[in-house]
């Protein structure tokens, strides 16, 4: 089979090439998926360029231990390993794995769910990481309730587009922040209000929000806290940061400050979960998320 592979860290345009690789054989508890679509995320780029450097402790210091990237996948089951009962050959599935940028990938069955018929393979692959982050941030971390006022900074990005829709599904009043070309998109997702950041700065607004999910994280902490309600929650969730430690320093700073202020500062690490994918499927089938 063919796969997109890199044997050293660097600019993806320079280090990634298509190679011939052995077709995986699904072991116990796994299925072999013929890949139809893959969604690439910030983490894929980070692991390709090898930054932040702290990441290399887990993925290979001088060169990547595993050179085929891609974590969010959708496709069709073509072979079933021992012990797998929930899937059969021909099932259309999506979920997360390692090495999805290939013609075939072996995936743990517990990391897959059936693809809703109404969803394309491309949409299903794009739902995995971005959808799980948005769901966990609003439902689990911020504990959004009906009537809460939620602001999503970076509302036109992968996570942001799902956050707008999930916020509405949870009954919140949602404000999306994006640039001029994306105002129509964010409005179409159901946002109650859209702020064009090239025209208006949300941190100088007279409005106050119960929850701010910040996918951009480009304003001082004090300015974002100033537009929270008295017990509001700020989730700084940008993956950007320094070359060595990435966003670790910013996350630790928020964690250390949180006990001493009235606001809840809650950076978090999202982990894809099968039950969350099933919940997202339910939202898709209800028409709340697309």
Structural write-up:
The protein is an alpha/beta fold and 290 residues long. It has nine helices and 13 strands. It has helices at 12-15, 42-49, 56-59, 121-141, 158-169, 183-188, 221-225, 248-257, 274-286; strands spanning 2-5, 17-20, 30-39, 72-80, 92-96, 104-108, 112-114, 149-153, 173-178, 193-196, 209-214, 228-236, 264-265. The strands form three sheets. A six-stranded parallel β-sheet has the order 10-9-8-11-12-13. A five-stranded antiparallel β-sheet has the order 6-3-4-5-7. Strand 9, helix 6 and strand 10 form a beta-alpha-beta unit. Helix 4 (121-141) packs across helix 5. The longest helix has 21 residues, at 121-141. The chain is globular and about 60 Å long. The model has no long low-confidence stretch (mean pLDDT 91).
Give a quick summary of the entry:
With 290 residues, the chain is of the alpha/beta class. The protein is built from 9 helices and 13 strands. Helix 4 (121-141) crosses helix 5 (158-169).
Series of secondary-structure elements, N-terminal to C-terminal: EHEEHHEEEEHEHEHEEHEHEH
Strand elements, count: 13
Structural class: alpha/beta
* Helix percentage: 25-40%
Q: Tell me the Rg in angstroms.
A: 20 Å
Relative strand content: 15-25%
Characteristics:
290 residues; alpha/beta; six-stranded parallel β-sheet; five-stranded antiparallel β-sheet; 9 helices; 29% helix
């Amino acid at each position: 089979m063919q796969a997109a592979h890199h044997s050293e860290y660097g600019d993806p345009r320079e280090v990634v090439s298509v190679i011939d690789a052995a077709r995986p054989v699904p072991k116990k508890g796994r299925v072999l998926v013929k890949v139809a679509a893959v969604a690439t995320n910030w983490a894929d780029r980070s692991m390709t360029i090898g930054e932040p450097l702290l990441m290399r402790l887990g993925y290979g210091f001088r060169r990547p231990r595993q050179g085929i990237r891609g974590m969010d996948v959708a496709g069709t089951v073509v072979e079933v390993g021992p012990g797998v009962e929930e899937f059969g050959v021909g099932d259309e599935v999506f979920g997360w794995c390692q090495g999805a940028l290939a013609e075939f990938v072996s995936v743990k069955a517990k990391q897959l769910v059936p693809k809703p018929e109404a969803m394309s393979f491309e949409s299903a692959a794009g739902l995995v990481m971005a959808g799980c982050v948005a769901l966990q941030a609003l439902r689990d971390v911020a504990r959004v309730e009906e009537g809460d006022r939620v602001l999503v900074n970076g509302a036109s990005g992968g996570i942001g587009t799902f956050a707008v829709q999930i916020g509405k599904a949870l009954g919140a009043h949602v404000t999306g922040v994006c640039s001029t070309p994306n105002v129509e998109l964010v409005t179409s997702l159901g946002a109650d209000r859209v702020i064009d950041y090239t025209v208006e700065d949300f941190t100088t607004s007279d409005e106050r929000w119960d929850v701010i999910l910040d996918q951009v994280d480009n304003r001082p902490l004090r300015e974002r806290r100033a537009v929270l309600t008295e017990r509001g929650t700020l989730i700084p969730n940008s993956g950007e940061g320094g070359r060595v430690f990435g966003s670790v320093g910013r996350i630790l700073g928020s964690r250390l400050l949180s006990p001493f202020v009235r606001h809840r500062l809650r950076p978090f690490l999202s982990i894809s979960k099968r039950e969350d994918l099933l919940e997202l499927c339910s939202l898709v089938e209800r028409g709340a998320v697309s």
